[in-house]
C-alpha cells in the first residue's frame, strides 16, 4: 500500500497553482494530517509551466515520482498533456477545458492543437473536463478558476469537503472569501456530475 496520496497540480504562471496547493496543505493541517509539498516555478513569470506537488500522509520527500501520482489537477489542457506521464495508465485527471497556445507554436508556424485531439491523447486516463471559467464567473470572479478546479477534484481527494472549504476561507484574500467559497462549491457540484466523463 502506498504511504501517501499524491496530487500534482499543474498550470501556467498566474493561474494560481501555488494557492491551490496551499489550500490543500491548510486542509491537511485542519485535519491534523501530515503533508509535504513543493513547487517548481520554471519561467512562470513569462507564462511558463508551474507544478505543485502535494503528498498527503507522506513520510518521505515532497516530490512525486513520474507514473505514481494518484491525481493530476490541470488548469490547462496542454499542461495536462505535458504532465500526463506522472499518472499511471487509468489514472485520475481533472482538467480545465481551457487552452493557452504557447507563443512558440505561432513562431514556428505549427498546427494549433485542439481540445478534441488533446483529450484523445489522454484517453487512457479517467478524465473529468471542467469549464472552470464559466463556473468562476458564476461564482463572481474569473480569477477563482483555481478554486473551482479544487472543488471539481475534491471528490477524489481524501480530505473532508468541509475542511477544504474552510482552508479556502483561510487562504484567499479576505475580500474574496465568499466568492471563492462559492467557486469551490460550484466546482464540487460540477466535478461530481462530470466524474468519468470528458
From TrEMBL:
<dbReference type="InterPro" id="IPR052198">
    <property type="entry name" value="IorB_Oxidoreductase"/>
</dbReference>
<dbReference type="GO" id="GO:0016491">
    <property type="term" value="F:oxidoreductase activity"/>
</dbReference>
<dbReference type="InterPro" id="IPR002869">
    <property type="entry name" value="Pyrv_flavodox_OxRed_cen"/>
</dbReference>
<keyword id="KW-0560">Oxidoreductase</keyword>
<feature type="domain" description="Pyruvate/ketoisovalerate oxidoreductase catalytic">
    <location>
        <begin position="13"/>
        <end position="189"/>
    </location>
</feature>
<dbReference type="InterPro" id="IPR019752">
    <property type="entry name" value="Pyrv/ketoisovalerate_OxRed_cat"/>
</dbReference>
<protein>
    <submittedName>
        <fullName>Indolepyruvate oxidoreductase subunit beta</fullName>
    </submittedName>
</protein>
<dbReference type="Pfam" id="PF01558">
    <property type="entry name" value="POR"/>
</dbReference>
